[in-house]
Structure to design on (140 residues):
């Protein structure tokens, strides 16, 4: 009887070892599958980002080609240079007119007036605008 019990114990221990080995192999294979799935998701995200960047670059390329074609036109180059770099034709005079942003910068430049006069002139427009605001609120 002990012979049969030993054989049964050996068979059950062999089945346990085989079962453990199969479980370890399946865990290893599942880990590989999970890694592959994550890498595929990451590659899809990279692909989407790359395709978006490609579209941006195609649009930029089209813009640059358009600009290149414009710069090959002499009339466009002349008008661009006249508008942006103040080039003039022969006998033509250019007058620089300040923009609104230039007036803000010029307010910081001392004009040689006394500080009392500049304070008075600064308060007068504010008083005028306050009066105009009160008139508009009354009319409403």
């Amino acid at each position: 009887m002990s012979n049969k019990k030993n054989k049964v114990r050996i068979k059950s221990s062999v089945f346990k070892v085989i079962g453990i080995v199969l479980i370890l192999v399946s865990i290893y294979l599942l880990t590989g599958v999970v890694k592959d799935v994550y890498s595929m998701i990451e590659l899809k995200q990279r692909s989407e980002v790359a395709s978006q960047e490609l579209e941006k670059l195609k649009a930029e390329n089209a813009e640059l080609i358009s600009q290149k074609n414009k710069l090959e036109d002499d009339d466009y180059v002349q008008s661009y240079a006249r508008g942006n770099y103040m080039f003039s034709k022969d006998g033509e005079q250019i007058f620089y007119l300040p923009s609104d942003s230039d007036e803000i910068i010029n307010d910081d430049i001392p004009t040689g007036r006394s500080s009392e006069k500049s304070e008075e002139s600064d308060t007068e427009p504010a008083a005028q605008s306050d009066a105009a605001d009160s008139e508009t609120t009354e009319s409403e």
In short: Confidence is low (pLDDT under 50) at residues 115-140. Residues 97-140 form one domain. Residues 2-71 form the longest helix (70 residues).
